[in-house]
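WARN retry 2 of 3 for item q-0093 after timeout on previous attempt; input resubmitted unchanged.
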Amino acid sequence: AGTEGDNGWYTSSVTLSTSGSDSISEPVVCTGEQHQTAETKGQPFAATCTNQAGIVGHAAGVTIKLDKTAPTTTLAVSAGTAGSHGWYTSNVTVHTGGVDAISGIADCTADQDQADETAGQLFTGTCTNEAGWTSGDELTVKLDKTAPRAALTTSGDAGANGWFIDNVTVNTNGSDGISDPVSCTGVQTQTSETTGQAFNGSCTNDAGLTKGATPVTVKLDKTAPSATLTPSGTQGDNGWYINDVTVTASGSDDISSPVKCDQPKTLANDTEATVVTGSCTNEAGLTKAAGSLTIKLDKSNPSANLSVSAGTLGADDWYINDVTVSTSGADNVSDPTVCSADQFQTTDTTGQAFQGTCTNNAGRSQEATPLTVKRDASPPTAALAVITGELGANGWYTSNVVVGASGNDDQSVVSCTADVHLTADTKGTIVTGSCTNEAGLKTEAAPLNIKIDKTRPSAQLNVTAGTSGSAGWYTSDVTVSTSGADSISGPVTCTATQSLATESTGTTFNGFCTNGAGLATDASALVVKLDKTAPSAALAVTGGTTGANGWYISNVTVSTSGADTISSPVECVAAQTFSGDSAGTGVNGSCTNEAGLVGHADPLTLKIDKTAPVVTIVNLAASYQIGSVPSPTCTTTDATSDVATQATPTIPILSGVGDYTVTCGGASDRAGNVGSATATLRSIYRYDGFLQPINDTAHQVGDTNTSIFKAGSTVPVKFQLKRSDGTIITPTSAPVWVTPLKGSATTASVDEAIYSLNATGGGFYRADGQQWIYNWSTKGLASGYYYRIGVKLDDGETHYVIIGLR
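OK item q-0093 returned
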């Protein structure tokens, strides 16, 4: 009793029983039951039986092999590069091994391979011992052969020309489609100003493979340049200039040079106070406004006039009481004007000459025309008054003025000077008049100083603060100021400063200025467009054939698009085309709105593989015997995206002679490109050489085994054509006799029988049973020479042999 396993083993405890018989002296007594319960590689057992006559018979011995235990089976990786966290980073071979101390291992599962990347592939395997017991094990393999993706990105306030104008943060980002998570270089910062700081970073996947990101260089300037305004021109008094003034802006920057400043500004017109501004901008786009300058310019001398400010004029230009001569003047730019002190005539005179000068605030002087005074006493009464005229503010008139003289005398009729008509604008005109009585005595009326301004002031709106963009747009908060001037009744008063901080496609500003006479002028309206926000920008693939695993298998076109809700239209960089194979090409793009602000798209990484994998057929001979089976193999390589599927061979069955094609197909790379290869082999007959009486070991002249025939006899030339396994085969076309070629001389003696056969003649061998024969007649051929004879087969092969004639 016992369970039988394989190969003569038992797999459970064994009980042996002994039995016997005797045809004469029954009954027979035999050895009792024997047991084997312990595992053993071979335990012999013996037994006997004894008949009644006492004769002992010995049973044939038995050896018991007992194994009740299955073997120990273990799966382990026998080939493959170990990465981190239980991952492998190269192709893996899983080997199944077993141990059995009793019956030994009979068979285990063959080695198993893992070439495709996987987050977890379960392998199982079994081993069977000689006794037939089987046990199994399993192993999970994680395989990632590809490093993760890695890229550096920057964030911070962008200036111009690739500069940043505030602290910059550099982040390293990565991902892996197989062995996540990915750990990358930590956040890096650039806080100090620099003309170019290179940053590097890398990412490592869970399998331990590391990929370095493309480096980036950061340029940082957080400080605006210096800016200074410098005037040039001839200075007068009290901060005035007395000829043209040029104001030049200059500046510098220690980091992002060169610095560009506003163009010089030249002031050529007289002005009481013109504010000049200017600024400088460094290469990073930071702008510094220089401290403003107020320029006062007067290039003209003041007016200067001598006049009688007190005294009574009689007849014939005589004065008839004390006379005061005053010097008066004015300057329409640099008032106040200072003139010579009053002069007096208190005694009668036939003619006293008076001189005087006036000097304006800029220091320019003007001599008045001399005045001669004649004095005589007893004038009549006289007075001046405005008869007609529209009175404005501050004592100014805003229309033409008529000044009339009036007087009286208790005794006689008084006649006065004619009315004075003033029509021109003036900062101050002294009007005089007189009255004469019938006695000829004349009295000068007290003079009137008339100021007339009939012209409204100038008024204009200007942007005095704000960063200019493109196409008339501003890209920072805007300040609008109203300014104006009046050459007569200045200075003027204008609308207060206005501002715009909200983005707008067009905000209209209005303002006005009022001169000293009370006249107001509305400035032309000013429309301000403000956009402080860069446009959106995005990259997208707009052309290209998609392969597998995120690859492209043709040229790729990447377009940049963007939008702006304020200052449209938006112009983006032109479409970019990428044609070269690459495992990762970074693409950038940007868009600029009408205001000149630039938005940068998030970078895009392209993987391009346009090239099919290379397939090579190996282990393929040029020819094989008909009926044999070629055993070529295929190899597949890919230089860019790596191989996804190896090519496999299609092997033809060599059923006849001729050319056959072997194909290695089914290859693909990870991008989805397909590759194949073909090769040609030739199927030929198995040819074992010419048969006796010819020795087909002699293929060169002088071989010791060369057959020597008697010249003139007929030589039977025979051979067989076979398949690779030795089976005789008949060709489609009869073999062709190759015309004998005479060679070198021989002195060897005849060693072959003399044959008397009918020559075949013609150019072909004939079938003779399972062989082919050509009866070659040597009649007429020269003796004492070697000859090369042969056969040309329809498989394209030609076979030769050397014989001699004596």
